[in-house]
Amino acid sequence: MIRLRTPILTALAVVTLAVAAAAERGTDGELRMLYWQAPSILNPYLSGGTKDIHAASLVIEPLARYDEHGDMVAWLAAEIPTLDNGGVASDLKSITWKLRDDVVWADGTPFTAEDVAFTAAYCMDPSGGCASLASFQGVGSVEAVDDHTVRINFDVPMPFPYAPFVGSILPILQQRQFEDCMGARAPECTEENFAPIGTGPFMVDDFRPNDVVRYVVNERFRDPDKPAFSSVLLKGGGDAVSAARAVLVTGEFDYGWNLQVEPEILQEMEQAGKGEVVTAFGTLVERLVINKTNPDPKLGDTRSTFQDGGNPHPFLADPAVVRALSLAIDRDILVEAGYGPAGQVTCNVLPAPAVYASTANDWCLTQDVEYANRILDEAGWERGRRGIRAKDGVRLSILYQTSTNSVRQGTQALIKQMWGEIGVETELRNINASVFFGSDPASPDTYQKFYADIQMYTNNFDGTDPQAYMTGWICDKIPGPANQWNGSNISRYCNPRYDELAAEFAETGGIEQRAALAKRMNDLLVSDGAMIPLIHRGEVAARALTLGGMRHNAWDSTLWNVHEWHRIE
Amino acid sequence: MLRYAIRRLLFAIPTLLAISFVVFALLDLAPGDPTAQLPLTIPPETRALIRESLGLGQPFPVRYVRWLEQFLANEPLNLVEVLLGIEIGDSEGRLRVSSWATRSPVVDLIAQRLPQTLTVVGVSYLVAILIAVPVGVFSAYRQYSVFDQVGTLITMIGFSVPTFFTGTVLIVIFSGVLGWLPSIYDTTHRVTDLASLGYQLKQMAMPVMVLALFSAAQISRFTRSAVLDTLHQEYVRTARAKGLAEPVVMLVHVLRNSMIPVVTVIALGLPTTFAGAIITEQIFRINGVGALLIGAIEGADIPTVQTVTFIFASLIVFFNLVADLLYGILDPRIRYD
Amino acid sequence: MAADQAAAPAASARAAGHGLPGAHPERAKHAVWHRLRRHPGAIAGAAVFMAVALAVLFGSFVHGVDPHYLDYRAKNQGMSLAHPLGTDNLGRDTFARLLAGGRLSLAVGVAAMALSLTVGTVVGVLSGFFRRLDGPLMRFTDLFLALPVLPLLMVTTMLFREPLRAALGLEAGIFILVVGVIGITSWMQTARIVRGQVLAIRAREYVTAARSIGARPWRIISRHVFPNALSPIVVAATLDIAAAIITESALSFLGLGFPSDFPTWGRLLYDGVPFLTLTPDRVIWPGLAISLTVLSVNFLGDGLRDALDPHATTHRAPVIRRK
Fold first, then answer.
1. How far apart are CA B60 and CA B6, in angstroms?
2. How many CB atoms lie within 10 A of CB B99?
3. Which chain A residues contact residue C275 at CB under 8 A?
4. d(C-alpha A543, C-alpha A557), whole Å
5. Which of C68, C90, C162, C177 to mutate to test the interface with A (most CBs of A within 10 A)?
6. Which residues contact B99 (CB under 8 A, 6 or more apart)?
7. What is the pLDDT of residue A499?
8. DSSP label at A324?
9. Are the C-beta atoms of residues B305 and B149 closer than 8 Å to each other?
C-alpha cells in the first residue's frame, strides 16, 4: 500500500477503507469472541443456557427480535403482526406471521412456513425436554397457511401474543434437518444439535463442546454485503476477570461476554487503551428474597414450608421489619463496590421496560438508619446483648445466603455491617451455584428449599412482557414438598389481593392498563416485604476499540446484529 | 513376578467395579442438578420435564446398570467397529454413554480433549521429572550446600504458592506487560511447519511452566530425602571403602536404591496427566479433560463425571501396579508371592 | 558449615541408633534433641514458625483494627500508618485480616496435616508390613485416589454441615468439617509412599534378623520399620501443611468451607488475585505468609529428619574425597 504523508489524508483513507470494508462481505477477517462460559450445544431448545443461545444466534434466527431499546423488529418475518394490520385476531386468539420471501437456508433450500410449524411441533413434544416449552403456553396449534404465512392459534385470548418465535431463545429450525429428531430422539441427534443449518450470517464450521466454536460466513445470507467478517472464533472457558483482561489489556480478543467483575478492576484494565466496557440494561434485578415462613431447623420437615399460613417467620413475616432492613441498606455503596456503571439502585422488582417501572417505592433509594431504628423501636424490638435487638425471646438474627461469586460476597459483607448498625445480627453463607440454583429435592441447600431467612440472587424475564414473571408470586406457586419444591414463589408470599391482580392481568389488554396493573403488583410485593430489591443490573461486556457496529443488547442475544459488526481502525 | 502381575490384573476387575459403583452412588447422592445452570426464566415445571428427558426419573440401580452396559459393552464394540471398519449387530440402535450437557457421546468428548491435556500436562510432567530428579539427587549429595538451600527455597515456594496465583502473575507479566506470549490456549491450532510449531511452543510455555514448578517441587523433595536416606546406608559406605569411583557409587548403589519413594510419587502423578490440571487448564483455557471433568461436576453431568472418573481409576490401578512391579525390579529383595 | 556440625554428634548418633534392641530410649531421645539443637536449619525454622504463630495469636493486641470492619471510604489503599498493609476493595484492613486469617490457616494446616499423616502412615505401614492386609488396604487407597473430590466434598458438607454446626457452633463445627474433609482426601499419597518404603525395609537384613529372633510384629514396626520410614513421612508432612492451607481456600471459594467473611490466608490470596495489578499488597503478604510458614516447617522437618536418621553423620564423606 502507498504511504500517505499527512495525518489528515491517513485519517481520510482509514475512513474510506472502513466504510468500504463494512460495505463488502467477508473482507474484515476473523472476529474473535470470548465467552468464559463455553457453549455446550448449538440447539437452544435442548439447552436453554444463555451461552448456548448466544452461540446459536449467529446461525439460526427467530421471526422477530428485540432491539437494544426493547422494541420488536421483524427478522425472518416481513413485518410485526398487530391488531391494526390485522396480523393479530381481534379476539386475541390467533396471530398470523407473514414471512420474508428472500430467505434461504444455508444449504440452498427455501425457508418456508412449514419450518416454523415444524419448530413449534419440535418444542411442544413433551418427551423432548424442550427448554422453551413455557413460551408455547396456551398455543393450540401452529399451521402453515401458505409458503410464507404461518398462523399460531391460542386456546385462550392472549393479550400479549408475541411469545413464540420472538427473541433468540426461539429461533426457527430447518425441518429437513431435524425431522428425525423429534421427541425422545432429540438428544441423540448430535450432529444436528452441534451444527444446525440456519439462515443467519454465519455457519458452524467446527464445534468443540465447552471449548470453541468456529464459524464461517454464510454465502447465502440475504444481505449480499454482510457480514463484514469472514469468520468468527468463539472461545470459551476460564473466568470473567481473565476474559476481561484478554480483551482490554492483552487485546487478544475483540469481544468478551458477561463480565461481572468489581468495577475498579475493569476501570484499571480499560486504561490500557485497547478496549472499552459496555453495559446494557434489561430487567435483571439483584434482590434479597425474604423468607415469609419459618426456616428453623428444629421444625424438621416443616421448616420453610407454607402450611397455609400456619408457619410464619418469627420476625420477617412483619413488613415493618423488612422495611427497616431495606432502609438500613446504602444501595449506592453496593453499586459502587460491586457494579459501578453496570448497576443502578432500584426499589422495584420490575424495573423495566420504562412503562412498567413504579415510583411508589422510592423511599428506599436513600439510606435512613435513623428511621430504620425508629421503626424497630416502635415495633418493640429492644437492643439486648451485644446490641442485638430482641422481642419476646426472639432475636433479630438472620442467616443470609447466596451463591458463590466474589461480587455477591462483597455485597453480603457490606449489608451485614449495615444491618449491624440497626441491631440486626447476620450470619453469612455462600453456596456453590450449581447446588444453590439446582433443584435436587434431596439437597437442603437449593434456593427453592430456602433453609435460610434471606437469600440473594438475580432474576429477570425473557422479552418485554412481565405477565408470566409477575404471576410467579401467587399463592399457588409456593414451593413445598407437595410440588417437589417446584414453584417460583420463593418468598412463600401469599396475599389474596395479589392473586386477584394476577388474574386480572391475564385478561387485560392495552399497554397502559397492563402497566398500571403491573405497577400495583410490584408495589404490593415491596410493601408487603416479600422482597428487598437492591440493584438493577446491566449486562456487561467488553469490546475492542477496533470493533464497530456493535449495539449491545440486553433484551435479546447481544450478538443479535453480528452481521453488522465490522472492523474499524 | 509374572504370576503376581496376572493376579493383580484379575483382582483389578472387581476393584474397578466397586470403585465405579461407589462413584456412581456418590454422584447420585451429591446435591447437583443438571438444570442448575439454566437461567431462572425457565420455569420449574419445564425443568422437571428436562430432567425427565435425561432419564433422571429412573431408579438408581437401573441407571447404574445401563451405564455399565453402555460403557463396558457398547463403547468397546463401537471402538472395534471404528477401528476395523466393520459392523457388529445393530450398531445404529446401540446407545452410547451420552453427556447431559452436550447430548453427545462422552467418549468422543474425551477423545477431543485428550490431545491438549496430554501435550500440556504430559510435557509439564516430563519437564518436572527431568528437573526434579537431578536437582533432588544433587541437593542430597551436597546437603546444605548453596545449591541445596536455593533449591529448597525455590521448590518450597513453588509448592506453597498455588497455581491460580503463579498462572495469573505470569499472564500479567508475559501477556499483559511484555506481550510475548498468548494468554489463551488455542485448541484448534495445528502444527504443520516450523512457524506453527513456534506458536505451539509459545502457547504452551506458561501453563507448562506453572505446572512443572508445582510437580517438580514435590518430586524433588521426595527424591532428596530418599537419596539422603540411602547415602547413609552401610552398603554405600562399603562401596566407597572398596574404592569404587564416586559416579559408580551414586548411580549403581545410591540412585537405584533410593528410587522407591520417587517411583511411587511419579506413578501416582502419571494418571493425572490424563485427568488434567483443573485450575491451570481453566486459567489458560486449555479446555482439556480436567476442564471437562470440573465442568461436568458443576453441571451435575453424571454420565460424563462417571466415565472420566472410571477411566481415571483404571489408570490409577494400572500405574500403581506398575509401581509395585518396579519395586521388585529396583530392590529384588521385595517379593510379593 | 556442613562438615563441622556433622562431626560432633557422630558418636552419640550411632549409639542412639535406629533402635537396636537394647539401646536406651532416654538416651536416644536426648541425642535426638541434642542433634536437633545443633542444626541451624532446624533452629531457624523453629524460630520463624514460632514467630509466625506468636504474631497471629497475639498480633491483634498490637494492631487492634477489627478485621471484619468495612471502612468503605478507605478502600483499595496502599500501605499507610493506619493500615500498615493497605486495605481491600471493601475497605477492610489487610494486616488485621492477615493476622486473623493466620489463626485459622495455621490451625487448619497443622490439624489437617496431622490427620492426613496419621491415616496415611497407619495405612502405609500396615499394608507394607502385613502381606494379608496389603491387597485390601491398597485397593481401598485406590478407591480414595479415584474418587472425584468435589462431589465427595459436596456430599460430606451436605450430610455433616448442619449437625456439626448445631453441635459445636458455627466456627468449631466448620473447622472440624474442613479439617476432616481435607484429611480424608489427602492421605493416599503418604500411604502409598510409606508402604513402598516399608516393603523395602521389611526385606532388609536387620528386620529379618529381628524376626528370626522372634521379635513381635509391633515391636519390629516401632523399633525398626517406622524410624527408617520416617524421612518420606517428614517430607509428606511439610508438603501437607502447604496443601491444606491452599485446599482450604478452594473449599471456602466453593462455598464448602468457612463463611466468606472469615478470612484465611488461602482465601485472602484467592480474593486478592483479581486485584493483582491494582493493590498488589493483597496478594504479596498472604503469599509470603504461606511460603514462610511452609519453608519454616520444611527446615524444621529437615532438621528432625537428620536428627532422627540413625546414620545421618556418616555421610559427609565427599569431603574426604575432594581431591
1. 33
2. 29
3. 262, 264-265
4. 15
5. C90
6. A209, B105, B106, B109, B296, B301, B303, B304
7. 94
8. H
9. no
What integer pLDDT is reported at residue C29 of this predicted model?
Answer: 66
Per-residue model confidence (pLDDT) at position B187? 87
C-alpha cell, A494: 401469599
Q: Tell me the mean pLDDT in the region A129-146.
A: 90
DSSP B33-88: -TTTTS-TTS-HHHHHHHHHHTTTTS-HHHHHHHHHIIIIIIHHHHHHHHHHT---
List phi, psi (to 5°) of A521.
-65, -45
Q: Are A284 and A486 in contact (CB under 8 A)?
A: no
Average pLDDT estimate for A304-320: 92
Interface of C with A (CB under 8 A): 68-70, 72, 75-76, 89-90, 92, 154, 158, 162, 166, 170, 253-256, 259-261, 271, 274-275, 277-278
- From C260, C271, C278, residue closest to A428, measured CB to CB: C260
- pLDDT score of A292 more than 60: yes
The distance of B191 to chain C (nearest Cα, Å) reads 33
Maximum distance among all Cα pairs of chain B, rounded to whole angstroms:
83
Q: Do C146 and B172 touch (CB under 8 A)?
A: no
Say if domain C30-307 classifies as CATH 1.10.3720.10: yes
As a residue count, chain B comes to 337
Amino acid at site C152:
L
| Closest residue to C295, CB basis, from B153, B294, B298 | B153
Residue type at A131 in one-letter notation: A
> Using CB atoms, which chains have 3+ pairs under 8 A with B?
A, C
Give the pTM: 0.85
**Residue ranges of chain B with pLDDT lower than 70?**
89-93, 336-337
Residue pair B133/B220 in contact (Cβ under 8 Å)? The answer is yes
Q: In the predicted model, is pLDDT for residue A17 greater than 50?
A: no
How far apart CA C190 and CA C134 sit, in angstroms, is 15
DSSP calls for A135-165: GGTTEEEEEEEETTEEEEEESS--SS---TT
| A389-391/A394-395 β-pairing | antiparallel
In this structure, what C-alpha cell is assigned to residue C124?
502405609
